[in-house]
Structure formats: structure tokens, C-alpha cells
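Course exercise 7: structure representation. Students receive a sequence record and must write out the corresponding structure in C-alpha cell form. The form below is the worked example handed out in class, using Flippase (450 residues). Read each field label carefully; the graders check that inputs and outputs are placed in the correct fields and that the protein name is recorded exactly as given.

STUDENT ID: A-19
EXERCISE PROTEIN: Flippase
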Amino acid sequence: MKQYISKIFSSGFIRNISWNLLGYALPVLVAIVMIPVVMKHTGLERFGVLTLIIVLIGSMTVFDFGITRSVTNSVRKYLDEKNERAMLTVVKTGWLMITCVLLVISVLFWVESRWIAEHFFNVSNQQIREEIAGSMKIVAFSLPFVIAQTIFVGVMEAFGAFKKISIGKAPFSILMYLVPMIISFFTPSLFYITLSLCILRCIMAVAFYLMMRSEIKTVTPISLMSVPTTKAIALELVRYGGWVSVGNIIAPIMLYIDRFFVASIVGATVFAYYTTPYDVVSRIAIVAVSVCGVLFPMLVTKIATDIRSANAYFNKVMLGIFAILVIPAVAGIFLSKWFLSVWINPGFAEHSWIIFSMFLAGYLVHGLVQPAFVWIQACGKPWIIAMCEIVDLALYVIYLPWMTHHYGIIGAAIAWNFRMLLSLVVLHTLRYVLYSRELKRSRLVVSTLS
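STUDENT ANSWER:
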């Protein structure tokens, strides 16, 4: 075990995690300063709607249909095989597939923008409804750029270019909060704030394309545009990405469906007491996201070649995530009322400190779920994740609205935490079963060779 741990620290694993974490952490610090200002200028109801729009923009990755993760998996595989032409074909084919699908979705989003504004946002103010409808059209335009950026980042992750990803994300992530705050000084309109966010996402996509192209040039002089797209590569991406897409569709739904239920049941004003603590606490997910973004391409290689080493990485990641999250989670639970009173105001804290504390406990569990999730995908079995999430969603849509209707925002928070605990037990059990089978298979191979 000491040998495996020393390998972990002597490699670039910890360094890559640090860069990944830095890229996520900087905008969180900015958000803590900016959110109270935007809330003050836009008003509680507009701010509640704005958080939903931001969620919508962030969750548009649901429309990548698993291709991003599939591209990362295939690019890493072909890099290991030193097959540069196949690697480029994966990138180009995946990007083209996503673009074609998203152009259709964007048109539908544009045409149905008013229907979305009227049916998914519980807002009585006619002016705000008009602002939402206009915002939906802007979101529709930016959709292909947002998803293309995830492809470019996925390719760079396969290359291990986490420092470049972090440096590239940081300024845009900060601007995502800074620009809306500046606009809120001049107008509370959701349309103009959404427009600024989407313009930034489009510019970000272009920047990451240039960075990805630069990374590709380090391993091959072949131009990305010179390689053909192939049916074989498309089928490879679809076979892996098809199951991932089920998870990618369900995961954002599971992550954000509570917001829409709470908004529709308790109203947009009360909703802010739920979503603001959620938005703040959810930022600690950057720890697990940063680690698992580095863990996935490494496990793709290690599970197939050295299962014990892969398991050592996994155990170290679990311990590291817990060690990082447990102290702020426990401290935050005890200081939640004071923090919200200072950050926003005592009246707001009185309504939301219990929700804040519950989400802190829930996101500690959420962080421990993610390594098992990544292990199962890296094993080449995304269908297991998909089936688990289908069952999870079927149960969640039953007990979430019931709890929200009877116990309000506290009931919704209890339902969310229960879902996290259930995921922890199920996914780690399945992860252990897969590890045990692979370990047994590797022992049989060794005994056969000997």
C-alpha cells in the first residue's frame, strides 16, 4: 500500500487535482460577494427566477447525450495506443454529432420559449414573464456553444491538461458573476442579465477550442479538419455514450428537479429561502468534481492494466474528499445562522438556516458518492449508472413532491438528503462488486501465465 500511495503523490495526480480545484474555487469566492448585491438590485422574486435560469444554462450539458464522456474515454484510449488519426476522428465525429442534434434542439427551444416561460416558472408578474420568454431565446442561441465547450474540455482532460483548463475557466467563471452584478446596477431585467451570461459562454467556447487545438498539436501535426468522420467511430461513441446519456439526462433532472417542485408548490418568493442556501452549499461539490475530473481518465487506463493501483487511487480519493469536506460541513452547520445573518440579513437567516445546515450534511455525502460513480463509468459499464438513476428518479418524483407539499422547503431538503444517502449505499456496493470481479480476473490471468 505504501508503494501505491507514493506513486500517487509522485505522479501529477495531486497537482492536476489542485489545478482543477483552483479553477472551480475562484468563482465561488466571487459568488459569495456578488449574490447579495444582485439579490438587492433585482428583488427576491427576480433573483429566484434568475437562479433557475442559471441552473438551466448550467444543466444544458444534458443535451450532450453522453458524447462528451465518450469522447474523453476514446481519446484517452487512442492516446495510449498512439493512434493519433483515430483520436482526431473521435474528436471531429463527436463534435459534429453533437452540433447536428443541438441545432434542432435550439430551434425547438426558440420556438417554445414563451411556453417554457409560462409553464416552468411560477411567476405572477407579467413583465417578469416577458423577460423570461426573451431570456429563453437567448439560451436557445447559446446552446450549441455551451455543449461544444464541454467537448473541448473533455478532450483536454484526456490529455491531462488540467492546468490549462483551470486557467481558461477561471476568468470566465468570475465574469459569470461579475457581469450580471454590474448590469443589475443599471437594470433588473432578466433578459439583459441572461444575454450577458450567454455571450460569455459563447466566447468561452471559442477560447477552449483554440486551447484544445493547441493541445492536439503537441502530439500530432495532422489537422483536426483534415481527418474524415467515420461510421465506426460514431457507433463507438454512441455505444458508450448512449448509456452515459441516460445518466446525463437524469442526473441534472435529479439535481435540480427539487427547485422546480419547490417553486411551483411554495412560490417564487419562498423559493429563494431554499435555493440560496442550495446555491452556496452546492459550491463545495467542486472538491469532488475537481478530483473526479482527474480520476476518470486515469481509471480508464488503470482498471484495465493494474486494478490494485486503481483501487489505491480510489481509496485515497475517498479519504481526501472526506477530510476536505467534513470540517467545513460541521463548522457550517453550527455557524449557518450567523453566516446567513452577516452575508444577507437576519430575517433571511431565520427562514433558511435550517435548510443551509441540511444541505451541508447532504453535500458531504454527495462528495463521497462521486468516486464510485466515476469508477463504474471507467469500468466501461455506464449502463449500471443509467439503470440506478432511472430507479432513483422514479422514486424521487414520488416522495419529493409529497414531502414538499406537507412540510414545505424543509420537507424538500429532507427528501434531497435521503436521496444522497441512498445513492451512497447503492453505488459503493456496486463499485465494490465490480472491483472484486476485476481483481479475481486479474489473479486468474497471473496464475495462468505463471
